[in-house]
């Protein structure tokens, strides 16, 4: 097992509210790692701290053996972590293809001078970006909508597009924030196939999900957050039987909702 | 020392007018998140309407007591401005509540220039002398420091108006509905608050304050013209941001502080820059303060709301 | 160009080729038509081209990157004053255009970056007010820097600026070829036209590039843009600097064409006027900026020529003078456009990619 990402004692507070406290976990290369927990358990906060949207109050992340910069999202992407959002966030005035091309930004180099003069390098890079974006649309199965303005896509297709856009940054770790939210059963099972394909192609996946069935069927290992603390981490079958987890989900005596 | 005291007195006077105008900005911002760029122009309309009324009164009732005339002028200017505020909200801003984020602001800018242009058409380009009905003979409470009765009046009236507003917002049902709407439109509406009416009312109250401010401005300087509202409007906005936008107490504090900084700064800028800059740079202070506050403390002096990245 | 073609009513979509040639021909013969109506119309056309450059530059900042800049005219001022300082008797310096123009552009870009650095973190509406403040500060300095050392000559401005001299060919002197005399206003027109076409090509290239996509991404959703690896701070600075560059070049050309500069030309109203052109044409598309600038420069002048005689005939006096008419038109255009047609007159869909680059097409 090769460690890809390690969270070491990560904590985050908002005013008096502790959203995350002392969360440590390790994600290995090539696995699908699930992060679950009841509403407000701190899953999305964990995502935001990991991807640099928030600065953690304690702890750090080590990715591929180097510490991740905090509070600098673009550097995190450059290191090889890409994310999607719980409530889809696409670039509304661009086509599907252009959204994915924008996702490739960090892997391209052309400067203003190259763009103004349209030198050979810039033209070649632009061609590659376009082709690669189209490939990715094919990969997630929506290439027929390449030139459709993204806000006109169906909900499920928007989800797929967001994943394609994230993949365009050539990540080693793809972090998906509730990708199945709002999907029907067919769409969810298609999504499952896609995520398995992504893992098969060598990208490690971190999955936040509400849909316990999806998580249990897809993930190699699962961590459970409750009130900002990690209360369990193991293979799905074991986690499922963990009493702390059951009481967190069903509302045990300690945390009445 | 006298200069300093004198500048503090001047700053307090101008600052209390800024505070009145700033309240209008801050109330609208608090409830809609909109910078009502045209608010300064309401101040101008207030002043010019009052001027028009005064000229009329001098024609038909030359013997009327000056203070009565002024009172009537204010009582005419207020409803005119209130109607103007109502119309702005109803005809323009209401339609844009769910528009892309730049649209309402661009509309407000257009509104500001439209009002200036209309005022230019009605009242011309010239500066008008505003009758100074309250004495402007300087008194000397402390030797070397001058203050005029009109200045004293301005400070007192501003304080009274602001106290009235605070009472309205904190003690009445209406005020509670306003605060609820500012907190969250949808929830307030669910609780039975007619949020549309409350938003319209916010514009109307802000406009009434602006009318009073306009008359005070014109009385203090003895001048009124079509563009007189723009700069004070910007400065009042700065004051609102300085105090913490959305916060009533903040707007008042911000107004006073800005007035003081500007007056004291203008008094000393020449010495501070070794004669390189003089008091004609006075208008820069507001912008520099605005920039500094927004960059280093975007919540302002009293603000609690996080204004960045929701 | 494609956007512009589509913007032509009726013909644009039915016969793009014909429309394209029509636009080119109209652009080329426009000054001849204008000359028929009088010299003043030629001058107006020249100004329309300058405004086009400004609108294109501001559109880059407002329309592409989504940063509402209300002090844009300050960069125009920087360009114009650079010309005045380095190519006029004011300091007795007379440098050639190929030094002054790039310098003006560079100073403007620098001013853009200086403004950009502190204000980048601000939200849209705060940014607008701070940039407005910046524009006013620049104007206040132009007005007052005649004391204690006379730098800008204060409100009087600077006179007798050098005209544009292209390697020995002075554009301000009418050109005589044999018996044929070409008035200098034509020369400026074609030179400015060249500049506008150049600007359009540059801006189009920027739009369809990783930079253009990054701007659009940032404008549509800043948080998501950061999350896909866009360094929004640098991209905003770049937008400010490049937008300012266009302003700076236009300012230099304005100085040389007009022959004098004074703070009056760089008032807030001018910033607003350029913004209105962008909004009127349609934020974020190049054709919009061009059409907006053309219409809103020409319309007030046409009104001036129609409304004044009408007013005199009907009322006996002039009630609305041309300046008032212009302000009325601009402010109404801004409000009504936002309320009735927020996408602008030319709601073309901006492209950020070249689908033809895909092998076999899609």
What does this structure look like?
The complex is a heterotrimer of chains A (257), B (310) and C (362). Chain A has helices at residues 43-50, 73-79, 96-103, 112-117, 120-140, 155-167, 185-200, 212-218, 236-241, 243-250; strands at 3-14, 17-28, 32-36, 58-63, 66-67, 81-83, 173-177, 204-208, 221-226, 229-234. Chain A is of the alpha/beta class and 257 residues long. In chain A, the strands form two sheets. In chain A, strands 6-7-8-3-9-10 form a six-stranded mixed β-sheet, with helices on both faces. In chain A, strands 2-1-4-5 form a four-stranded antiparallel β-sheet, covered by helices on one side. The radius of gyration of chain A is 19 Å and the shape is globular. Chain B has a domain at 19-229. Chain B is 72% helix and 4% strand. In chain B, helix 3 runs antiparallel to helix 8. Chain B is globular and about 60 Å long. Chain C has one domain: ABC transporter involved in vitamin B12 uptake, BtuC (Orthogonal Bundle). Chain C has a two-stranded antiparallel sheet. In chain C, strands 3-4 form a two-stranded antiparallel ribbon. Chain C has a two-stranded antiparallel sheet with strand order 5-6. In chain C, helix 4 runs parallel beside helix 8 (184-207). The model of chain C has no long low-confidence stretch (mean pLDDT 87). Helices cover 68% and strands 4% of the residues of chain C. The longest helix of chain C has 30 residues, at 286-315. The chains are: A alpha/beta (257), B mainly alpha (310), C mainly alpha (362). Chains in contact: A-C, B-C.
Poorly predicted runs of chain A: none
Give the number of helices of chain A. 10
- Helix vs. strand class of chain B: mainly alpha
Quote the average pLDDT of chain B: 88
Q: Regarding CATH, which class of the largest domain in chain A?
A: Alpha Beta
Q: Give the tally of structural domains of chain A.
A: 2
Q: What is the number of helices of chain B?
A: 11
Ends distance of chain A: 39 Å
Estimate the helix proportion of chain B, in percent. Answer: over 70%
- Runs of chain B in which pLDDT lies below 50 for 5 or more consecutive residues are 305-310
Largest sheet of chain A: 6 strands, mixed
State the shape of chain B: globular
């Amino acid at each position: 097992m090769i460690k890809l990402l390690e969270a070491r004692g990560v904590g985050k507070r908002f005013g008096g509210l502790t959203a995350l406290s002392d969360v440590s976990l390790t994600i290995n290369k090539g696995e699908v790692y699930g992060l679950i927990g009841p509403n407000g358990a701190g899953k999305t906060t964990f995502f935001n701290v990991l991807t640099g949207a928030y600065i953690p109050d304690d702890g750090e992340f080590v990715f591929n053996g180097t510490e991740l910069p905090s509070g600098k999202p673009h550097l995190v992407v450059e290191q090889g972590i890409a994310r999607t959002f719980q409530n889809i966030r696409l670039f509304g005035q661009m086509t599907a293809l252009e959204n994915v091309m924008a996702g490739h930004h960090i892997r391209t180099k052309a400067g203003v001078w190259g763009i103004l003069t349209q030198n050979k390098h810039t033209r070649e890079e632009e061609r590659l970006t376009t082709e690669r974006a189209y490939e990715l649309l094919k990969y997630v199965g929506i290439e027929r909508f390449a030139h459709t303005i993204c806000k006109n896509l169906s909900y499920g297709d928007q989800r797929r597009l967001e994943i394609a856009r994230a993949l365009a940054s050539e990540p080693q770790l793809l972090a998906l924030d509730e990708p199945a939210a709002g999907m029907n059963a067919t769409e969810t099972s298609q999504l499952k196939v896609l995520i398995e394909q992504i893992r098969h192609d060598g990208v490690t996946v971190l999955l936040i999900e509400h849909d316990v069935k999806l998580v249990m069927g897809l993930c190699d290992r699962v961590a459970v957050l409750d009130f900002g603390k990690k209360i369990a981490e193991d293979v799905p079958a074991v986690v499922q039987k963990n009493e702390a987890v059951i009481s967190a989900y069903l509302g045990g005596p300690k945390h009445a909702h | 020392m006298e200069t300093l005291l004198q500048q503090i007195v001047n700053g307090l006077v101008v600052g209390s007018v800024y505070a009145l105008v700033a309240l209008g900005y801050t109330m609208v911002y608090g409830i809609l998140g909109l910078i009502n760029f045209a608010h300064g122009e309401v101040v101008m309309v207030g002043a010019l309407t009052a001027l028009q009324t005064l000229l009329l009164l001098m024609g038909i009732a030359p013997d009327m007591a000056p203070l009565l005339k002024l009172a009537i002028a204010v009582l005419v200017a207020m409803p005119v401005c209130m109607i103007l505020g109502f119309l702005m909200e109803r005809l323009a801003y209401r339609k844009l509540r769910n528009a892309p984020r730049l649209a309402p602001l661009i509309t407000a800018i257009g509104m500001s220039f439209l009002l200036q242009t209309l005022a230019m058409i009605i009242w011309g380009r010239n500066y008008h002398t505003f009758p100074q009905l309250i004495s402007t003979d300087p008194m000397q409470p402390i030797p070397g420091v001058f203050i005029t009765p009109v200045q004293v009046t301005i400070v007192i009236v501003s304080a009274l108006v602001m106290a009235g507003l605070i009472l309205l917002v904190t003690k009445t049902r209406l005020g509670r509905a306003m605060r609820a709407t500012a907190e969250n439109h949808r929830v307030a509406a669910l609780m039975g608050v007619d949020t549309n009416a409350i938003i319209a009312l916010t514009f109307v109250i802000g406009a009434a304050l602006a009318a009073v401010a306009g008359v005070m401005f014109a009385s203090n300087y003895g001048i009124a013209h079509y563009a007189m509202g723009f700069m004070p409007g910007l400065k009042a906005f700065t004051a609102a941001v300085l105090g913490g936008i959305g916060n009533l107490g903040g707007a008042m504090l911000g107004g006073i502080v800005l007035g003081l900084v500007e007056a004291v700064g203008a008094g000393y800028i020449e010495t501070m820059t070794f004669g390189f800059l003089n008091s004609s740079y006075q208008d820069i202070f507001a912008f520099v303060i605005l920039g500094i506050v927004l960059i280093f403390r975007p919540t302002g002096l009293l603000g609690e709301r996080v204004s960045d990245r929701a | 160009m494609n956007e512009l073609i589509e913007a032509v009513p009726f013909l644009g979509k039915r016969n793009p080729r014909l429309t394209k040639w029509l636009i080119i021909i109209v652009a080329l013969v426009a000054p001849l038509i204008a000359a028929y109506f009088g010299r003043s119309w030629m001058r107006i056309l020249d100004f329309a081209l300058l405004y086009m450059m400004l609108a294109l530059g501001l559109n880059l900042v407002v329309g592409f990157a989504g940063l509402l800049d209300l002090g844009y005219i300050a960069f125009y001022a920087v360009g114009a004053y650079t010309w005045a300082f380095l190519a006029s008797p004011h300091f007795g310096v007379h440098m050639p255009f190929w030094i002054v123009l790039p310098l003006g552009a560079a100073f403007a870009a620098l001013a853009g970056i200086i403004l950009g650095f502190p204000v980048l973190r601000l939200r849209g509406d705060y940014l607008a007010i701070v940039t407005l403040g910046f524009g006013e500060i620049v104007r206040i300095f132009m007005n007052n820097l005649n004391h204690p050392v006379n730098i800008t000559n204060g409100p009087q401005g600077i006179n007798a600026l050098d005209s544009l001299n292209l390697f020995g060919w002075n554009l301000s002197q009418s050109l005589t070829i044999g018996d044929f005399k070409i008035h200098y206003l034509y020369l400026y027109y074609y030179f400015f036209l060249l500049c506008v076409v150049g600007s359009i090509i540059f801006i189009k290239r920027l739009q369809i590039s990783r930079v253009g996509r990054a701007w659009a991404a940032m404008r549509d959703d800043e948080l998501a843009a950061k999350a896909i690896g866009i360094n929004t701070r640098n991209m905003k600075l770049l937008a400010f600097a490049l937008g300012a560059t266009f302003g700076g070049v236009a300012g230099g050309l304005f100085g040389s064409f007009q022959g004098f500069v004074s703070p009056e030309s760089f008032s807030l109203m001018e910033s607003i006027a350029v913004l209105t052109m962008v909004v009127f044409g349609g934020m974020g598309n190049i054709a919009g900026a061009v059409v907006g600038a053309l219409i809103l420069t020409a319309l007030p002048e046409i009104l001036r020529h129609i409304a004044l005689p009408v007013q005199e005939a009907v009322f006996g006096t002039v009630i609305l003078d041309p300046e008032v008419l212009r302000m009325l038109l601009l402010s109404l255009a801004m409000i009504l456009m936002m309320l009735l047609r927020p996408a602008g007159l030319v709601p073309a869909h901006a492209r950020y990619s070249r689908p033809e680059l895909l092998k076999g097409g899609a």
